[in-house]
Structure formats: C-alpha cells, structure tokens
Task: structure prediction
Amino acid sequence: MPCPLCDDTGWRPVETDGVRRVARCDCWRQQLGQQHLADANIPKRYQHCSLENFAAYNESLEKALAHARRVVTAFPVVTRGLLLEGQPGVGKTHLAVAVLKQIIQASGARGLFYDTRDLLRVIRSTYDPSIRTTELEILRPVMQADLLVLDDLGAEKTSEWVDETMNLIVNTRYNERRLTIFTSNYMDIPDDTDPNSLLFRIGIRMRSRLHEMCEFIEMDGADYRELPVNGGVDDLITLWKMRRKSLPARAGRQVRAQLRRQSGQLDLKWPGGRAGS
Ligand SMILES: Nc1ncnc2c1ncn2[C@@H]1O[C@H](COP(=O)(O)OP(=O)(O)OP(=O)(O)O)[C@@H](O)[C@H]1O
Ligand SMILES: [Mg+2]
Ligand SMILES: [Zn+2]
Result:
C-alpha cells in the first residue's frame, strides 16, 4: 500500500503561513533509518538492545540510562558523547548500541558500530603502503559517521601504528565535533603507571581529548551474563551486592593496585575482567 501522505514519492506537501512547500515524508526517513541500521555493523548479539529493555536497578545505572536518553533526545544538537566505563557485563555495550539504534531509527543518521580491536584489524588487513586508498575506504566512514560507537577502548595492543590510527580517528571526530560513544573496561584514574588505567592504555593526549568530547560515566552493577535464565531484578541486585562485597568499585581500586604490585600481575583489568583478552 502506498504511503497515504506522499504516495511513495518521499515528499509530502506542507503549508506554512499560507505558503505551500514540500518536505521529506516520515516514511522516507524511516526507510533511510532502516537502511542505515542495516549498514551500522551492529553485532547480532546486540541487535535486541534498547533503552527500554535496559534494567537500571541502582543509581549508577539509572544515571547512565538518563545520560543515554539525553543524547538520544538532543541529537543532532549534542555537544558531548559518552564514555561508559565499568566491569564486564554491566551493560556498557548494550547501552551504547541502544543509543546508536534509536538515533539511526529516529533521524536516519549514519551510525556505525566497531569493536576497537576489530576496527584496527580491518584497517590493518587492508593496509598497503603503495595504495593508501583502501585504508581510507575503511577509515572514511568511521571518521565521518554522524554517530560512532567504539567498543572496548583500550583493549587493543598498543604500537606506534595503533596510536597513530586511533589518534587520527579520534582527532578527526574531535575537530569535526562528531558524536562518539566509547565503552571501556579500564578505569579513568590519573595513574599512568597502572596498567589498569585508561591513561596507561591510551596515553595522555587521547585521554585529554576524550574528556572534552565525552561525559565519563562509571557503571557499577552485576555481571548480567551470570544472571540465571529466569532471573530478575532481585537476582541482579544480589549479584551486584556480591560483586561489591568481593571488591567495592572505588574503594577497592587502591587495594587492587596494591595487590597487583605485590603479585607482580600486570594484565588484570577490573576484578573478574577478561584479563589479557
Ligand atoms: N542492565 C541490563 N539490562 C538488560 N540487559 C543487560 C544489562 N546489562 C547487560 N545486559 C545484557 O547482558 C549482556 C552483556 O552486556 P554487555 O555486553 O552490554 O556488557 P559490557 O558492560 O559491555 O561487558 P564487557 O565489559 O565484557 O564488554 C548483553 O546481552 C546485554 O544485553
Ligand atoms: Mg562490552
Ligand atoms: Zn510517505
């Protein structure tokens, strides 16, 4: 059945102050949104994610959800993105994908999801010093997307090439004021000698840019992946409390750092993190 508003032309008549014009029809924006959603590279595992099915059972998760909602509502007039940090399974990627999906669907914007390590792998695989165009073919949409989600920042192995590439991506988006949402397991503590700190992983210049580009939001909660099949919010709260008891997020940082120094263990991230992954 053709669209009753525009007869499938994508343009519908509008009248403002007695002047007749045409404007883009909602059906056109929806179709564009569907197309851009299919092109957004969202992994199958996260395609179900939405703001509505995100369980916010404590203050930090409520705050993260509120920030996510604000970004969605304000888009495209958003001055700062988000950096969601926290332990494995608290829902960082879920929330980032939910924002990405909602913005694409509502506005038809170009959005893109990349796991940071995957992105670097893809760029590297196309890297050919004699023809830099292939590298740019991957990089261009990443630098130009209206909204980019860079998942698991800091998990990549560092090298000069990685630093250069990441700086190029982040710097371009920073200069163009494009919206970016990052997630990370690493803690934003000012200790550049602690291998668990974001600063240690990404360096001082990148961290400084990120602080200007993004609101840093710490998410504290249970590992949702440990939730039994028929589990509910009460179980999440219990799991979260058990996790806190084993090592409270903030208070535990110094203790953890000390434990690490004592044990000489270097690649532990958050407690229970996928060490060295
Ligand atoms: N608060 C939540 N409400 C609903 N689903 C959640 C919530 N937290 C996590 N999940 C679900 O649990 C799974 C793991 O969450 P997610 O991948 O977002 O965690 P993460 O914080 O990104 O973890 P990691 O640090 O390991 O990447 C996903 O399927 C996600 O949809
Ligand atoms: Mg994640
Ligand atoms: Zn229409």
